[in-house]
Amino acid sequence: MRQHRIVLLPGDGIGPEITAVAKLLLDAAGEQHGFKLNFEQHPIGGVAIDASGSPLPASTLEACQASDAVLLAAIGSPRFDALPREQRPETGLLSLRAGLKLFANLRPVTILPALIDASSLKANVIKGVDLMVVRELTGGIYFGQPKGRIEADGDERAFNTMTYSRTEVDRIAKVAFDLARDRSGKLCSIDKANVLDVSQLWRDRVDALAANYGDVELSHMYVDNAAMQLVRNPRQFDVLLTGNLFGDILSDEAAMLTGSIGMLPSASLGSEGPGLFEPVHGSAPDIAGQDLANPMAMVLCAAMMLRIGLKENDAATALEGSVERVLAAGFRTGDLMSEGCTQLGCAG
Ligand code: ATP
Ligand code: MG
Fold first, then answer.
1. Which of 27, 55, 173, 240 has the fewest beta carbons under 10 Å from its own?
2. Beta bridge partners of 266
3. ipTM summary value
4. Would you say residue 339 has pLDDT above 50?
5. Residue 202 CB: number of other CB atoms within 10 A?
6. Is the pTM above the cut of 0.95?
């Protein structure tokens, strides 16, 4: 029987509740589809600070590095808000990303039919949307040197540098091309090549790589147009490839097409080694421990882990189907039923 080694990181707030749901479904999926998941659970974030003083204990990182995939629920608690930023629970996540050498952030945006309010204007635009944003995570203007603030000629000036190397573009583009090949075979690369030199290199490298992917239909789009097209006609997109800054903005924009933060999974991948799968939402301390959390983002993360991390596609489809069936049967958590916004596509 196929075996996979999974590290579970429940973390803080609603993390343990939604992890328990995902684990239940993963065990059942393994039983049905002929594989066994060997789970190890480790502390990260606030609970790890409480237990050991560090938001990412060495034993947690080592277990993650030795695993086939890591499923993380949520990190963060207001109890630590007074600490300096580098000691807070969230630094555990940054260290984990660095320790696993993750550079590609994947955010699928899928509109589930059960959540569309057919009477709303937005319904026609979002119906059938199924896209994936692939965002470069470790380069670009957020990390480029030089940066800073200087006094000059009686004025003050601040600057950051947007920079990408050929190698950096190639490795993220490869992730996007591979994904496009596994999906419907369409890739749209986002840049600002009409203005930025760094974007011209980006576009040149993506074009060069396209030679290895004859079965993928490649297009390029300027980021300002992409921002408009995402709200005008999101169905035209399958896989979107972006740098760090453009992806930060576009992935939040695309996410809001779906409505609730409680529905959104994400994955972070490196060139090799385990991927990290985590919901887009945070630890939701306001509802933790009250059995109010929507576990669907976490279940969809588990499905992404099965599909992308473990190549267990049938089991992934089964988990996605479980979410669709629960919604189709009419069950809703509070985040999907807030006042004045009972369905997607409403004004809220
Ligand atoms: P972080 O900085 O970790 O992202 P945050 O406070 O910015 O945390 P969340 O923790 O995601 O953001 O919470 C934002 C709001 O969304 C809260 O009111 C929370 O209760 C709600 N929320 C987040 N996740 C869920 C979920 N899975 N189910 C229901 N409500 C959720
Ligand atoms: Mg937040």
1. 27
2. 278
3. 0.94
4. no
5. 29
6. no
CA gap 117, 337 in Å, rounded: 12
Give me the chain's average pLDDT, please.
Answer: 94
Q: Which of 327, 325, 326, 306 is nearest to 317 (CA)?
A: 306
**H-only helix segments in the chain:** 15-33, 46-52, 58-65, 90-99, 123-126, 166-182, 197-210, 223-232, 244-255, 296-304, 313-328
Ligand nearest to the CA of residue 291, numbered in listed order? 1
Pocket test for ligand 1, best of 19, 90, 261 (most atoms within 8 A of CB): 261
Averaged pLDDT for residues 93-116: 93
Helix (H, G, I), strand (E, B) or coil at 287: coil
Q: Is the pLDDT of residue 338 over 70?
A: no
- Asked whether the beta carbons of 316 and 105 are under 8 A apart, the reply is no
Contact yes or no for 120/345 (Cβ under 8 A): yes
Nearest to 247, CA basis, from 228, 264, 265, 226: 226
Q: Which residues are catalytic?
A: 142, 192, 224, 248, 252
Cα 321 to Cα 98: distance, rounded to the nearest angstrom: 33
248-274: pLDDT as tens digits = 999 989 988 886 788 999 999 999 999
- For residue 22, give the ligand nearest its CA: 1
Placement of tokens 């940054």 in the chain: 94
* Sign of the torsion formed by the C-alpha atoms of 283, 83, 267 and 210: positive
**339: which residues sit within 8 A by CB, 6+ positions away?**
none
Neighbours of 57 (CB within 10 A): 18
Give the integer Cα–Cα distance in Å for 187 and 180. Answer: 6
